[in-house]
Amino acid sequence: MPCYTDDRKWSDQFIPAIKAAIKPILGDSEVAPDEEDKHHNTDLIVLTSERGRIACRVRRLEYLNYSDQFTIRASRPSGARTELQKVVLDGWGDFLFYGFGENGRLEKWTLADLQIFREYMRSQIRVLKLNPDGVAFRVFDWKKFPPEFQVANSI
């Protein structure tokens, strides 16, 4: 079963590519301290903006067929707080960077506004997907959100 350390090690390989992708949109960013990531759903912090907390999620290329959807971790067998709880219940995060990649390279990505996501979550029914390792994700369809939800993308 993957733990925080395993997940972080895998996702950190994409940090240079993510920083390069968002720089023209949000400006320079730095990797957030582990405590920010663990407690505030923040992988990167934009240095020149008040809305600067960016949650990052990169899925393996084998899931690229699902690029019309995005998932957010809703529970872990350990009971640790998840991204969904941190974003919706605690109000953390300004942007979500969601992409698909392998070996540190991004194939496709979207930058989304988490304030719009929170507003959406107050009024919608979501699908829960349980993985074999006991980690559950909520599945969302990009097209069900208003157009302003997607700030930028690689397409």
Please specify the SSE layout and strand pairing.
Layout: H1 4-12, H2 15-26, E1 29-31, H3 34-40, E2 44-46, E3 53-60, E4 69-75, H4 83-89, E5 95-102, E6 105-113, H5 114-121, E7 127-130, E8 136-141, E9 150-153
Parallel strand pairs: 3-5
Antiparallel strand pairs: 1-2, 2-3, 4-8, 5-6, 6-9, 7-8
What does this structure look like?
With 155 residues, this protein is an alpha+beta fold. It has a single domain, classed as PvuII Endonuclease, Chain A, CATH 3.40.210. 28% of the residues lie in helices and 34% in strands. It is built from 5 helices and 9 strands; from the N terminus they run H-H-E-H-E-E-E-H-E-E-H-E-E-E. The longest helix is centred in the first third of the chain and has 12 residues. The protein is globular, with a radius of gyration of 14 Å.
Count up the helices: 5
- % residues in beta strands: 25-35%
Shape: globular
Counting DSSP E segments of at least 2 residues, the number of strands comes to: 9
CATH topology: PvuII Endonuclease, Chain A
* Low-pLDDT regions: none
Radius of gyration: 14 Å
Q: Which strand order spans the largest sheet, edge to edge or round the barrel?
A: 1-2-3-5-6-9
| Overall tally of structural domains | 1
Structural class by SSE content: alpha+beta
Brief rundown of the structure:
The chain is α+β, with helices and mostly antiparallel strands and 155 residues long.
